[in-house]
Specification:
With 377 residues, the protein is mainly alpha-helical. The chain is 62% helix and 6% strand.
Length: 377
């Protein structure tokens, strides 16, 4: 317990020093937001319909045809909500007039009122309208097939109507039907990029400076082993990455309505990715002895990994060969997992391989960083 308290105290002190740096929030928050705005609007994704589209129904029909027509509208992709009076709020509203049945039985044409909220999803509205046209077509077809019989007796019983043709559509295997874009792609992408950049720079440089200035040597005069000191430094850099991610996600939620899909799983992905990055920063800081070399290498790695890993543009749109090449980037496994959770309704099973790769990378880098961690030159 005492060992843990000492580790937490040293890690907390490192975080306090970083936060007190005058330019810390510029590089970890303000500057990334500029990139988010750039890439968020540059690669603004097309609107995609939600898994189900909502349709509110005001059935004023005094006969039985209204309920029969609504049965034609029902489908797995349409959520019907009934209302007794016209509601104040709705996404889409269809009104069946009181004489709906009367006009059908008299074989008279009629118009149905379909109202839409201005800022509602256009893609969902299109899905509802298509389903309405299908329902109308099916109803008219049944009336035609029924012939000149008395329509008032139609609902009492008639021969079964069967579809003459059944059309089934599907995409080829592994077809990308949704292209990630907009702020829900840009915010996680830039977050992943700047976790790499800032943790590698701040983390690497401070490890090197603490070694050069003898800070690490002096810490060993306290009841702290070299192993515990390494763990404290690793923890501090992991906390820095998580702090930056949380700040950007909160800003994204407040100002850009960020949707991460499964939030706990998304944070787990970021946590494992940040751990791998933290270990790499300690490793770089332990090997290198000059600040400009650490900064240059950190910027190079962060930008190369970001470009290959899909932080700037959706990895789903690049050629297969480029996507395969991108798998060498830790950012690829993080972004692929975040896209699965946000754009493809993924669950833990879907992102488990990504988490496995990132965790394995974190373990390998942590072992290497611990092996090369030096108290003094």
């Amino acid at each position: 317990m005492r060992r843990l308290k000492r580790i937490l105290r040293i890690a907390g002190n490192d975080i306090r020093i970083m936060v007190k740096d005058k330019v810390f929030f510029f590089w970890t928050l303000a500057f990334p937001i500029l990139f988010i705005l750039l890439f968020g609007y540059l690669y603004k994704g097309g609107e995609t319909a939600p898994p189900s589209a909502e349709l509110t129904v005001l059935n004023q029909d005094e006969g039985r045809w209204g309920a029969y027509f609504l049965e034609k509208i029902k489908s797995p992709g349409i959520v019907l909500k009934t209302a007794g009076t016209e509601p104040a709020e709705y996404n889409r509203l269809i009104i069946l007039p009181p004489d709906f049945s009367e006009k059908i039985e008299a074989r008279k044409d009629q118009a149905l009122a379909l109202k839409k909220r201005e800022d509602a999803s256009a893609a969902a509205a299109a899905r509802v309208e298509i389903r309405l046209y299908q329902a109308i077509a099916r109803l008219l077809s049944e009336l035609v097939l029924y012939g000149d019989g008395d329509l008032t007796k139609f609902l009492d019983g008639h021969a079964e109507f069967r579809d003459l043709v059944t059309v089934k559509t599907r995409y080829p295997a592994k077809t990308i039907t949704v292209v990630p874009g907009g702020m829900d792609h840009a915010i996680p992408g830039i977050t992943v990029q700047f976790i790499m950049m800032m943790v590698l720079i701040y983390g690497g440089v401070t490890v090197m400076e603490d070694r050069k200035k003898g800070v690490l040597s002096r810490l060993l005069f306290s009841p702290l082993s070299p192993g515990a000191l390494y763990q404290a430094k690793l923890l501090a850099r992991w906390l820095m990455g998580m702090l930056q991610a949380l700040m950007l996600f909160v800003v994204g939620k407040i100002f850009f309505r960020l949707n991460l899909g499964d939030v706990p799983l998304s944070l787990l992905v970021i946590a494992v990715f940040a751990l791998a990055t933290a270990a790499l920063s300690v490793f770089i800081g332990s090997l290198m002895g000059k600040e400009d070399m650490i900064i240059g290498l950190s910027i190079l790695l962060a930008n190369v990994f970001a470009g290959l890993g899909g932080c700037w543009w959706p990895i789903e749109v690049v050629p297969p060969a480029v996507r395969t090449m991108g798998m060498i980037s830790p950012a690829y496994w993080a972004m692929d997992a975040l896209h699965k959770l946000r754009f493809f309704q993924g669950d833990f099973a879907a992102v488990a391989p990504n988490l496995g790769v990132l965790l394995a990378l974190a373990v390998v880098l942590s072992i290497l960083a611990g092996r090369f961690f030096k108290i003094r030159d």
